[in-house]
Amino acid sequence: MMIKSKKKFIVLFFLVLTLLIGTLPSAAVAATSTTVTIDYSVDWGAASQLASGYLHGIGPVYPNQKLINSLAIRAVRGAPHHAILPSLFDPTTYNRVKATGAKIMIGTYYGYTDVYGAKPGGNYADWENFVQDYLDEATQNNFDVYSWITWNEPDLQFSGNLAGFYETHRRAYNVIKAWNPNAKVQAPEWAVYNSTRMKDFLTYCKANNCLPDILSWHELSGTPDDIEGHSLEIKNWMLANGITPMPLSVTEYQGPGNIGINQGYDPGLSVANIARLERSQKHGMIYGLKGNDQWQGDDPNFKAGLDELADKNTLALPTGRWYLYYWYSKATGRKVQTSQNINQVEAFATTDSTTKKSIVLLGNPSDSVSYTTTLQLNNIPSYLQNTGKVNVRVESVGNTLGLEQHGTNIVLDGNYTVSNNSVSITLPTMGIDSAYIARITPGTTYEYQAESLSQTNSGKSHNVYSEAQASGGSGTTYAATAVGDWVRYTVNVPVAGTYNMKALLKKEGNRGVSQLYVNNVAKGSTVDLYGPFLYFDADYGNVTFSTAGNQTLEFRVTGKNGLSSSYNLAFDKFTLTKQ
């Protein structure tokens, strides 16, 4: 679809009421018990964040760069040129998108009806020349286009004349392949998955030598769609009908069509879609792109906002969904099996033996039922355990209806004893339209809250602050003003040995870059604290203490991001895990 939004008729009363409901204690909504099981012994393939794609999500100015930098952006789809939407063939926009490493998907149809006032027809010469002009422009400017889309949602735009779309597709396909036989053609971009319609299209394409290189469609019902079932069905049908299955892509999910309920901002529904897209990878799914729900059609007020990840007022602040996709970007290593009651709490999980970390995303897509969830971890690998324990930290994000979410809330953080390589944890009740991010790491040996430690510094202001999102409710800031400023914390290590050193730090727009020194020896890489409001774990690797007792952790300012307004540093907690 072109961008569509929640209808403007939503009254202020409804919006305020929705916000109030979203902030009520979970006990105010009837809770249902459910279980999510993670089995680390069942490998589901390499983690790739395939659902981290966006429609019209990045423009020449918006959203703020700090929101882009912290994400894994895999695909961006849109127009080569457009009066209102981002123009991906505009050098500023192209370079900004290309810098993310995303695959660029271009619609060849943009502007055609504006120029000719109708869909292709007749002798098709105008249509073929129109497509060729975009191909020539890509060649002249050395634009790297991953795939070319022959039309968008033809089931709507060619309603009653799908034969006209088939010929339109065939003509564009032939022009693209004559230009470059290796170019990827993406189609049919149906507005909804329809089994009969998809098979008819493929049958036509097989007979007319215009089978797409990527088979694409949209999943926009507003509830968790059966993406797994759709992808498996069409794959099996192709195998049974003499067509070699091509890669699949859902190029709009959770976007237009969810009228009046702001599901575009719903992180619980996002987890359900991410999980189902990821589980479809075994059927050939390679990309999933979030639909854009914030503005309607060619709304002149359109500003790119990473498809509801940026707040709708400034496009510079994170919504609740931004934090979800931030943690999704950290889900590295291997995907592992999740089992859950379908249409209740959905889950996606990865584990990484290199970083010794497992990420589990859990989402409640319901707007009426809250869930008390048992998280069952089975066959936990040894690298996630320490002294027979795992550490589990769970953070929550909610549906902020396009407004900023100021950080995540830690709802659970503790060490749990592993029995027969398993752990069962009852999570706090998950409210409607919300999501949890669980991080599983080896059990912690020693933790030190920054606000409780003695410190010295190079003469700048050092303060303790209180904040609900901080571990223990407090943290510290050091108001550094220049390269070379430093702050030192003293920690007491009761037992000599080798430890993994982590720090829970806080990003914001006035932060600097620092290097850690442990007892005057540099450890790990420099860490840039510039970004949106975010508590995150910095891993400095292993540190060996030859003796027990007091040890010095020094953070030295080495510079700042060019977009940062200052050199400040902020600390929440330090963790030493015995190796």
TrEMBL record:
Sequence ranges assigned to domain CBM6 in this UniProt record: 444-577
Signal peptide bounds: 1-30
Keyword field: Signal
InterPro entries on file: CBM6, Galactose-bd-like_sf, GH
Keyword Signal (UniProt): yes
Alphabetized PROSITE patterns for the sequence: CBM6 (PS51175)
Official protein name in the record: CBM6 domain-containing protein
